[in-house]
């Protein structure tokens, strides 16, 4: 019913990810309206968003949805909010998030006497990277995972606070609009002009 007449190609999907044709303003407006219409408590929605945003800091990119859904299910948070929260990890933010995760992990591993490899070779290709991950996982993968999950724990309280304020404000605004509409209909039914 709501599918496109002509499905997008893989290249068009990739382009939509970086720059939506509807524009960023309309995309954010859509998400904003979707959040306003959620019928869950403000706490559960905000905590769901915070879980999704926190999990987005982990380096295992294909599992963000799964991790967010699992945590939301365990703690009985809003599942849709958790999945939307993972959008924090997008092509614009991932390099900074991963850089922070690797640096934090390397910093912590240096206290244990393990030298983490945070500077990669300039002539790096996929084979060199794969060789590093398979033969020297301690030097890059373990600090990255450790830093990513620690970043997730650090980001959760801040993102919960921000999302709680946003969701609470959105729900209040929606309630005011609904009350205004009820009063407007009541005035029209009773014939009052004011």
**Biggest beta sheet summary:** none
* Low-confidence parts: none
Shape descriptor = elongated
* Secondary-structure element string: HHHHHHHH
Distance between the termini: 42 Å
Helix content: over 70%
Explain how this protein is built.
The protein is built from eight helices and no strands. By secondary structure, it is mainly α. The chain is elongated and about 80 Å long. The model has no long low-confidence stretch (mean pLDDT 81).
Defining traits:
mainly alpha; 8 helices; 194 residues; 70% helix
Outline the secondary-structure elements.
Layout: H1 10-18, H2 24-36, H3 42-55, H4 64-74, H5 79-85, H6 94-111, H7 126-135, H8 137-190
Helix pairs in contact: 3-4, 3-5, 3-8, 4-5, 6-8, 7-8
Give a brief outline of the structure.
This protein has helices at 10-18, 24-36, 42-55, 64-74, 79-85, 94-111, 126-135, 137-190. The protein is mainly α and 194 residues long.
């Amino acid at each position: 019913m709501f599918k496109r007449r002509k499905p997008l190609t893989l290249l068009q999907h990739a382009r939509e990810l970086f720059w939506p044709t509807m524009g960023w303003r309309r995309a954010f407006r859509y998400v904003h309206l979707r959040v306003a219409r959620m019928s869950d408590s403000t706490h559960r929605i905000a905590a769901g968003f915070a879980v999704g945003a926190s999990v987005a800091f982990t380096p295992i990119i294909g599992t963000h949805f799964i991790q967010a859904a699992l945590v939301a299910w365990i703690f009985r948070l809003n599942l849709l909010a958790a999945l939307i929260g993972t959008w924090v990890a997008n092509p614009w933010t991932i390099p900074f998030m991963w850089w922070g995760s690797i640096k934090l992990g390397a910093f912590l591993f240096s206290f244990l006497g393990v030298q983490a490899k945070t500077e990669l070779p300039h002539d790096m290709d996929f084979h060199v990277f794969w060789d590093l991950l398979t033969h020297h996982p301690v030097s890059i993968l373990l600090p990255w995972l450790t830093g990513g999950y620690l970043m997730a724990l650090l980001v959760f309280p801040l993102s919960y606070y921000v999302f709680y304020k946003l969701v609470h404000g959105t729900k209040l605004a929606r309630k005011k609009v609904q009350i205004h509409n009820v009063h407007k209909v009541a005035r029209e039914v009773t014939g009052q002009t004011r």
